[in-house]
Amino acid sequence: MALLLLGARAIRAEGSSAPSYGASSAADEGKISLDSGASGDVVVDVTGAVARPGVYRLPAGARVTDAVARAGGATGAALLEAINLAARLADGQQVVVPRKGPGGAPVAASGASSEEGPISLGTATVEQLDTIDGIGPVTAQDIVDFRDQHGGLSSVDQLDQISGIGPATMEALRARLQP
Fold first, then answer.
1. Which of 113, 162, 107 is CA-nearest to residue 134?
2. What is the model's pLDDT at position 116?
3. CA dist., res. 31 & res. 107, Å (int)
4. Which residues neighbour 141 within 8 Å (Cβ) at sequence distance 6 or greater?
5. How far is CA 156 from CA 39, 81, 107, 178, in A?
6. CA neighbours within 13 Å on the CB side: how many for 36?
7. By CB neighbour count within 10 A (0-12 exposed, 13-18 middle, 19+ buried), where does 116 fall?
């Protein structure tokens, strides 16, 4: 088994001289990676207004824009202004590209309003965070800044490191956010 993994890595190394941040080719779709994950890659779920929603493996340090590109790019119905394309991706993160609704307002991928479903921690805007009980615009901005400074977040529990977020606010965050 170890020889199989080493052989797969050698073949993979010969076939690619640099990591790909763009959209994958049709030949790459459906292939299973034999990588053990030790390389520090991140695996993200890209959903919403993209050409090919799905789960993708990207290099460590990749940004939301890389995940959107890997999913075939945004569709014409995408409201890219509602997400931070420059945010670093975290392993296990879900990237939701919202759709334009009536008047250009964002519509959640499921068709429900943002108040009804969980908000993606990795792509939440200040305005979306401000809708959570106990979070005002200043704390919402602190959360976005904290996320950007730490290269993304893999758990809502990491937000307890932000000044002004106490136990009651953490419970509200857990109820309304998803990693």
1. 162
2. 52
3. 32
4. 126
5. 25, 24, 23, 7
6. 9
7. exposed
> What average pLDDT does range 67-76 have in this prediction?
94
The residue type at 33: S
Tell me which residue has tokens 């990588």.
35
The domain segmentation of the chain, as residue ranges, is 40-178
**Is the per-residue pLDDT at 70 higher than 90?**
yes
Fold of 40-178: DNA polymerase; domain 1 (1.10.150)
More confident residue, 136 or 32: 136
Q: Which 3-state string (H, E, C) describes 113-173? A: CCCCCCEECCCCCHHHHCCCCCCCHHHHHHHHHHHHHCCCCCCHHHHHHCCCCCHHHHHHH
Instruction: Please give the radius of gyration of the chain, using alpha carbons only, rounded to the nearest integer.
Output: 18
Mean pLDDT over each residue of the chain, to the nearest integer? 74
CA distance linking residue 10 with residue 6, whole number of Å: 6
Whether residue 30 has pLDDT greater than 90: no
Q: What is the pTM of this model?
A: 0.46
The confidence band for 105, taking pLDDT boundaries of 50, 70 and 90, is: low
